[in-house]
Design brief:
The complex is a heterodimer of chains A (368) and B (276). Chain A has nine helices and 20 strands. With 368 residues, chain A is an alpha+beta fold. Chain A folds into two domains: 231 residues, Rossmann fold (3-Layer(aba) Sandwich); 111 residues, OB fold (Dihydrolipoamide Acetyltransferase, E2P), CATH 2.40.50. In chain A, the strands form four sheets. In chain A, strands 6-7-8-3-9-10 form a six-stranded mixed sheet, sandwiched between helices. A five-stranded antiparallel sheet of chain A has the order 13-12-11-14-20. In chain A, strand 17 and strand 18 form a beta hairpin. The radius of gyration of chain B is 24 Å and the shape is globular. Chain B has 276 residues and is mainly α. In chain B, 73% of the residues lie in helices and 0% in strands. The chains are: A alpha+beta (368), B mainly alpha (276). At the A-B interface, strand 6, helix 2 and helix 4 of A face helix 8 and helix 9 of B.
Chain lengths: 368, 276
């Protein structure tokens, strides 16, 4: 049980590549935090620095109240689950799980009790005598979790633990890890590039790009109020539609104009004074696919656009509509029973009150 | 189709048989010779079982410097194997896992030493060891053999360690190991196959080495078995019987070592460690 603080942490590799830059993160005790970002963004490096597997170039890392910069991984009281499981191939499942306790000279009876208790929770009691090579991917991942659990560490570090599993197993393991977190009441730091995992599992999400935190917030807040273009585009599936536009004022009302299309900027999205300061300037508007619907306007906040449907992808309960609007490829999410077909020419409506607006130059959000 | 299959099989077995005969025949002749009398061996007849099987050669050999030479061979070889495995595996680990200045040049240099033929090295070596007063000493042979064996050993073990997943060590370090402990508990078991192979390799190279031993030893203080066997054929004319008898005995340790370690040469030990 411990909080984790990263203060001004920087990681520079020999050759001058900066993997993590002035990273500040405060993880509360018992929190489930997700580090998410595209491949190579430095999220795994952050995790490995917390674990002590990677030296930090500058900055400070605290686990609990203890500065751990110079503390060896084995003395940090953390457990880690690796993407490739990293089970010891020459040991049975039981020995894999007992290894850390044995190193700490725990009495045999206590080791046995702890290993069996963890095995019971993870439903791997029947596998204890097997070697890792005789296990399936899902079973191996459970053993890896079990190995971390028996130690009762103050923090769990998980490095893309589900990315080697098939889709179905991933969904069920996702739920199990969330359950495990509630059961154990320990701090979890979870690295993933999968935004579904990020959205569903964490108390808070830190979105990382190029070694820099873009935004830290609850999943819902990230979704509703992305701080910048990157977060807007990264969180949400299908991706948010991003369109370059210019602010135009027509009779006291402000519009985002691109090509022949004018989209109303309602005051609740951007106040008149802010809008006025952007008049004639370039912005990027972001519209989530679920806020583009079929048919004509439903309220005066709506703007109707027309498009040729490149592809209508039916997912059963919903349909993803791919179309081009004024040269920008867009996606709309409509109910599954919608009759829109590939090749149709249809009119669609944007719910402007749900629009996000970003400064084109800085990429920062300027809407509420 | 069936005829073709049978034909293939026949040819294959025939070739295997030829290879077995070619490989084993000389050794068989060595064994036969060691149990024959000198007169019968010189009789120009080819035989499989000698008329008079005699153990006298073995008895004779024991009184003819065999024991001290064998002791020299055992001491030199076991020292080289033990030292080379300890130094070699640790060096291989360092070359595989750490970044340090001059790593690749050093690695290549170690191989480069093997490209110079021993005949070119023997004279300077002789002069150096003579000045150091190290001629005719076991320690000299041990040093030279280490320089022969180590480069191969480092290269072979490095390639084994290279393919051992790094995350396993990291997992061990988080589980409570120091780097050294993780090496012993995790890396070493995973490279045991390669280790067995290199033990056999360095044993055979050292045990059989003749040229340096012949050039740098004079008396039974340091003389090894290959030199002793050679001596049988020079000092008192060609004593084939003694050569053969000593040859049979000298061939036993490498065979035993190979049998002992082959059970460790099991592939697929690493399967299931990480997701490929």
């Amino acid at each position: 049980m411990a909080s984790i603080q990263l203060e001004h942490v920087t990681k520079q590799y020999p050759g001058g590549v900066t993997a993590v830059d002035d990273f500040n993160l405060s993880i509360e005790d018992r929190e489930f935090i997700i580090l998410v970002g595209p491949s190579g963004c430095g999220k795994s490096t952050v995790l490995r620095m917390i674990a002590g597997l990677e030296e930090i170039t500058s900055g400070e890392i605290f686990i609990g109240d203890r500065l751990v910069n110079e503390v060896a991984p084995k003395d940090r009281d953390i457990a880690m689950v690796f993407q490739n499981y990293a089970l010891y191939p020459h040991m049975t499942v039981y020995k894999n799980m007992a290894f850390s306790l044995k190193l700490r000279k725990t009495p045999k009876a206590e080791i046995d009790e702890k290993v069996r208790a963890a095995a019971k929770i993870l439903d791997i009691e029947a596998l204890l005598d097997r070697k890792p090579r005789a296990l399936s991917g899902g079973q191996r991942q459970r053993v890896a979790l079990g190995r971390a659990m028996v130690r009762n560490p103050s923090a769990f570090l998980l490095d893309e633990p589900l990315s080697n599993l098939d889709a179905k197993l991933r969904t069920s393991m996702r739920a199990e890890i969330t359950k495990l977190h509630q059961q154990l009441g320990t701090t979890f730091v979870y690295v993933t590039h999968d935004q579904t995992e990020a959205m569903t599992m964490g108390d808070r999400i830190a979105v990382i790009k190029d070694g820099v935190i873009q935004q830290i917030d609850t999943p819902q807040n990230l979704y509703d109020h992305p701080a910048n273009l990157f977060v807007g585009g990264f969180i949400g599936s299908p991706q948010m539609n991003l369109i370059d536009a210019t602010v135009k004022k027509v009779a006291d009302r402000f519009f985002a104009t691109f090509g022949e299309t004018d989209v109303l900027i309602p005051p609740q999205v951007m106040g008149a004074d802010v809008a006025a300061s952007y008049e004639g300037k370039s912005i990027v508007i972001g519209i989530r696919p679920e806020f583009i619907s079929e048919g004509g306007p439903h309220s005066d906040c709506d703007t109707t656009i027309a498009g040729d449907i490149d592809l209508a992808e039916s997912m059963g309960a919903e349909k993803f509509i791919y179309f081009v609007c004024e040269g920008y490829p867009c996606i709309a999410k409509v109910p599954g029973k919608s009759g829109i077909q590939t090749g149709d020419h249809v009119s669609l409506t944007i719910d402007c009150s749900k629009m996000h607006i970003f400064d084109k130059e800085s990429g920062l959000a300027i809407s509420h | 189709m069936k005829i073709k299959k049978v034909l293939n099989r026949t040819v294959l077995y025939f070739l295997v048989l030829v290879i077995i005969v070619v490989t084993l025949a000389p050794y068989l002749w060595l064994v036969i010779s060691s149990f024959s009398t000198k007169i019968e061996l010189m009789s120009r007849q080819i035989f499989l079982i000698p008329h008079t099987i005699t153990f006298a050669n073995y008895k004779d050999l024991m009184s003819r410097d065999f024991i001290p030479a064998a002791m020299n061979s055992i001491i030199v070889t076991s020292s080289v194997v033990v030292i080379s495995v300890i130094i070699g595996v640790l060096a291989a680990y360092a070359f595989s896992r750490f970044r340090f200045r001059g790593k690749n040049p050093l690695l290549n240099l170690s191989l480069f030493t093997q490209m110079i033929p021993p005949i070119a090295l023997i004279i300077p070596m002789y002069i150096i060891f003579k000045r150091l007063d190290l001629i005719n000493q076991r320690i000299t042979l041990i040093m030279i053999y280490l320089s022969l064996v180590l480069p191969y050993l480092i290269w072979i073990m490095k390639s084994y360690i290279d393919v051992t997943p790094k995350t396993l060590e990291e997992a061990a370090m988080i589980d409570g190991c120091s780097r050294l402990k993780s090496f012993f508990f995790v890396v070493l078991p995973m490279i045991s196959t390669g280790l067995a192979a290199t033990v056999i390799f360095s044993f055979i190279i050292t045990w059989n080495e003749f040229f340096y031993a012949f050039s740098l030893t004079k008396t039974l203080d340091a003389k090894t078995l290959p030199v002793l066997i050679y001596d049988f054929n020079s000092k008192f004319g060609a004593n084939y019987v003694m050569s053969a008898t000593a040859g049979v005995l000298a061939s036993l340790p490498p065979v035993l070592i190979a049998l002992l370690f082959q059970k460790y040469i099991i592939t697929g030990l690493a399967a299931g460690a990480v997701k490929e």
